[in-house]
Predict the structure of ComF operon protein C.
Amino acid sequence: MTNCLLCDTYLRVVPTFSDIFFSRRSHQKLCNSCFATFEVIAEPYCQTCYKPDITGSCLDCQNQAHTTLHRAIFHYNEAAKTFFQRYKFQGDFRLRGAFDQVLRDALKHAHIIPIPISDKRLNIRGFNQVTGFLTSAELTYLDVLGKQETGHQSHKTRQERLSSNNPFYLTSALKLPDKVIIFDDIYTTGTTLQHAREVIEKAGATRISTFSLFR
């Protein structure tokens, strides 16, 4: 029996032929009502950073000398805030599977580099919420970044985030593929992903884009 991860409603999951043939479990983890509370980003949006309600490029992207192509799936709305309160801050690790199929569709065949959390944060929380999403969706990734402790991003102002020092460093001498996607759970100012990009670019990747579940 499968129940919705958010409201515990019973899910009537009908397996496809390929699910049966390959002995796979269905990736449906949310009921239709709960899934509908997450608002998909639709056009118009910035063609560079996916900022909603923008035609062409937003002012932030126009004013930057170097921009990174970003994609996102959902608006960071009230449903998303409630979700991450349970997942990240209350430690409901089951919720890592909420977006399995979304991630599989968006990132299959990609060389993914997830945003890490610091060792201190990992010890407190017990898991990295970003890699939790990927492992639940059965997506492989390149574990090549580490992060110094900088305090909760959610407690910082926009200006503090924009002016922060780069906390990321390489943890592996692994030769990186030319084309990679850096993955994070939430895009706020873009500073986190830009800092990660700088490190990955120095490591040899030349075609770097970024992706987040929420924007």
User: Anything to note?
Assistant: The chain has two domains: 1-33, 37-214. The beta strands are 2-3, 10-11, 70-74, 112-114, 145-147, 168-170, 179-186, 207-214. Residues 20-24 have pLDDT under 50 and may be disordered. The chain is about 30% helix and 15% strand.
